[in-house]
Amino acid sequence: MYARPDAKDGTPLQFQVSGRLWRDTLIFFDTETETLWSQLLGRAVQGELDGDVLEHVPSVRMSWADWKALHPKTKALAKPAEINRSRYQRYFDAEDKFGISGNSKVDARLPGKSGVLGLGSGETAVAVALRDGRRDVPHVKVAGERVCVVRDGARATAWLAAVGGGLRWSEDGTALEAKRGHGGWNPWTGKPLSLDTEPLEAHPSVLTYWFTWSRYHPGTAVFDR
Amino acid sequence: MTPTILAALLLLFQAPDKPPIPTVGPRDLVIEGDPVRILLPPGGIPAVMEPDLLSVVEADAVFQPDEPVLGVAIGGEAVAYSLWHLDGHEIVNDVVGGRPIAATW
Predict the structure, then answer these.
(1) What is the DSSP letter of A92?
(2) DSSP characters for A140-185?
(3) DSSP collapsed to 3 states, A36-82
(4) Which pLDDT value is given to residue B8?
(5) Cα B7 to Cα B97: distance, rounded to the nearest angstrom
(6) How does DSSP assign chain B, residue by residue?
């Protein structure tokens, strides 16, 4: 998820789907300048705004039931009631289907359809592998910064590990806590559980497939422990 | 990351004498060695430009408990976007907590 910057006239850019794919992922364009933007990189790749970078906005993927428990006053985008599954479910389930460009160039370090939480970019990129049943809080170095990754199966998010000693799951498995000192946080919102604690600061991350991440960041490191 | 596969494949296998698909940007665009393929006309998958938001009670009538959502919370305001619904739109142009955002995954 990205912030929409202002166009020249001071109103926020509006994005539409270009109908084009680059490395099997979405290219969108802004209606004001028709610049092409890469969804995965969050960066303009062709046109008037070429090279401009979109600011990352932290977001999470989880079930509707879990989300509304975290945010009881949430709103939700209206949708037709008859949409009750993903039209791409067969694609998601097919372990040997990697986008439309075929199955040829998949970096063999992980299965192509493995979920990863991608951090950093280029030479400092790190892919944190997500696996069923894995529920932990590894800390990884990204461009010299220590990042705290919360993993729970296919769910994952990343926080700046600004807390000395890092973070871990609390004993009852419901919260994050500091390894040293005190402080507890909601693992998915970063909100503190007590008034004297600061909220966690999100680290930009991308939840995607390994075959996609490794095509955009071929020099990526892999964290699969 | 949602692929635009199904609709795209349909177009790819259309008869070759059809006029070319309209697009934005140069038709033969290659970036860092990889082509930027043209599969659908611009807006062929319609982004949401003016989102209509539901309360939890209203959403419960159309959302399943295990339905995957993309959630964002800014400045005390939270919004969830159904991923099943986003399949057909790819991008939502919204304003959350006063912040203009593009919800996409």
Answers:
(1) H
(2) EEETTEEEEEEEETTEEEEEE--STT-EEE-TTSSSEEESSS--EE
(3) EEECCCCEEEECCCCCCECCECCCEEEEHHHHHHHCCCCEEECCCCC
(4) 57
(5) 34
(6) ----HHHHHHHHTS-TTSPPPP-SS-TT-EETTEEEEE-S-TTSSPPBSS--EE-HHHHHTT--TT-EEEEEEETTEEEEEEHHHHTTTSEEEEEETTEEEEEE-
Q: Which of residues 20-79 of A touch B (CB under 8 A)?
A: 20-29, 34, 36, 39-40, 45-47, 54, 57-65, 67-68, 70-79
Residue A84 CA to residue A3 CA, distance in Å, equals 29
Asked whether the beta carbons of residue A84 and residue B84 sit closer than 8 angstroms, the reply is: yes
Distance from CA of A165 to the nearest CA of B (A): 27
Please state the pTM of the whole predicted model: 0.86
DSSP state of A26: E
Q: Are strands B34-38 and B30-31 parallel, antiparallel or unpaired?
A: antiparallel
User: B16 vs A60, which has greater pLDDT?
Assistant: A60
CA distances (Å), A33 to each of A7, A87, A126, in order? Answer: 8, 31, 33
Would you state the pLDDT for residue B15? Answer: 55
- Centre a 10 Å sphere on the Cβ of residue A44 and count the other Cβ atoms it contains: 20
Cβ contact, residue pair B3, A24, below 8 Å? yes
The mean pLDDT value of chain B amounts to 89
**Interval A157-178: pLDDT, tens:** 999 987 677 899 988 888 999 8
Give the model's pLDDT for residue A94: 78
What are the distances in angstroms from CA B22 to CA A31, A168, A172? 15, 52, 56
User: A131 by DSSP, 3-state: which?
Assistant: coil
Residue A216, phi-psi category: left (phi > 0), alpha (psi -120 to 50), beta (remainder):
alpha
DSSP label at residue A195: T
